[in-house]
Design a protein that fits this description.
With 454 residues, the protein is an all-beta fold. Helices cover 1% and strands 39% of the residues. The protein is built from one helix and 28 strands.
Length: 454
Amino acid sequence: MRKRSLLLAAVTASALLTPLAAATASAAPAKYGDDFNGDGYRDYAATSWSAKGGGGVGVVYGTPTGPGTTERRITQASPGVPGADEADDMFGEVRAAADLDGDGYGDLAVSATGENGSAGADQGSVTILWGSATGLSTGTTLPNKAPGSHNGMGEDLATGDFNGDGKQDLALVNRGVTYVYRGPITRSGKTGTVTKLDKTSAFDATALISGKVNGDGRTDLVIIGNVITSSSAASDAWFIKGGSSSLTSGRTLRLESQSGEGEFIERGGDGVIADFDKDGYGDIAVGTSVHSKHKGRVTVWYGSSSGPADDTRITQSSSGMAGTPENYDQFGSSVSAGDVNGDGYQDLAVGVRDEAIDGKDNAGGVHILKGRASGLSGSGSQWFARNTAGVPGALNAHDRFGGLVRLRDTDGDGKADLYANGGYGSLRLRGSATGIVTSGASENLGVDVDGLLQ
């Protein structure tokens, strides 16, 4: 994501949820939000390049055995895509998928946080690339509800049916504030009601996580944000309950904090919602790699009928975990959920991108935490690095293996595989009845790891 300077401000009181426009209707959405050509297989959309440096999206279409063999690159110079390919637009920097117009094909929301506009430099923009029988083609720019210089519209994106009407909605961050655009979103740019979610003057939204937490069938939203004052820096997770008529502000959980002058960084990090204890409620897992001098940790906030309830914290010092927490390990630099052993419990992959191994700084590695009725813990966890027997590639300093992790079943065997990137090449390790295994490991993925959308 594009980093922005944070304003130092004191914490104030209540949340503001302000309606801004009116809604429309459409048909039922596609089964998979990232099935852009409607063939029943999930597709892949990764950050790519453009001729003039404005950025792009590399799209690879899925097959029964995983990614296909051809990549199609889409930029703002592509036919029917709004805007122009201009240096530092950062088109494709952030992506989220859903069938936003309800035509049965997945669509791709793409941010360009460096896009200049009538309100000034780096105003930002979000474009919807439309799915069809032939895949993604043409696009529509989303209305900007808060245009301004350096606002960076689209710093993060999330999709879901937040009001349970069967139509997919889109949430985005614009200058530290979250806006939820109700679906359907049409190719003419018309959207439903837009809701503004702004917690306090000190809370600066940086990341969005969507999923079903309380079992009512509607998608809920978790907004991760920095809380910076003159004497401290912290990150919070703010739960927003989906509802038929409105979004409701819920509990806030402190993820991490430090005393003294705050760092001008996005503190909250990566997150996902999945049912790790198989109780029917989605659980929220957030990696905060800056925790305790960047040792890092993962917070798991368990779902219930009333929303998120109990929480637990996992670090490399938790019982059963490999390694020990050290400054700048960055445990939790990336997280992803999937069922790696087919037991019905969602498991969690946790990247530790700057783990030093055998004297190699920033070598990196990945933990796999197993889901069970008692929830996630270090018990029975797995650890993979370049020096793990059967893992391809040599152990190298500054590889940052596990800087981005994804769990996804790409071969249809009912078990999620681990995809992990690194500076010396990305890997796929297969899921099995015993968990992730190194046999059959692949270095030729056919797609960038960041093309596997959460």
